[in-house]
Amino acid sequence: MTALSKALDDIGARWKVLNPCEPDFIMELAGYDVALSNLHGPYGEDGRLQGLLDYLRVPYCGSGVGASAVAADKILCKRVMLSLGVPTPGWWVWSGGPMHWNGRAAMVKPPFGGSSVGMSLVREQADLARALTDAAGEEDADVLVEDYLTGVPLTVGLLELPGGAVVVLPPLATEATEAEFSTPTPSSTWNPGAP
Fold this sequence. Notes:
There is one protein chain. By secondary structure, this protein is an alpha+beta fold. The protein contains 6 helices and 10 strands.
């Protein structure tokens, strides 16, 4: 049982896990009052599912289509942050070919995948080529290379209320206890609200 399903049980909500790979997923989803997505990565948090939910007029938790699509594309997200003047660690995009090593530790990230899936921490030049190839994948996608910063990752949730007021929730810290950085396990579960 997940923390989400336990919380729904605790408040007496009726809920069901739906599998987006099942043929009747869309028809069943349309019958619910609210969707609580627990999907990660492509299709789950990149705007496509959010677009489907908008089309079905099923309210859902989390960001909308635009914010989800921008956040899921790490390179696009960096470009948007840059255009808004939001400071981020130094970064560059690798599109194949030779790579100049600046001697500093770096995070090598595939452009898509959610959270830290597929990322590599590179501390030595000898490890860089392999990390770039792994992150580019079979599609030979562009790769985000970002200066490695130590610290505690924080997540701050925002809740937009009707009328536009925004509630800032307390920060949540992620602690990596068995690795140098947090690597979540992708999930493919779906937890919609009660019909």
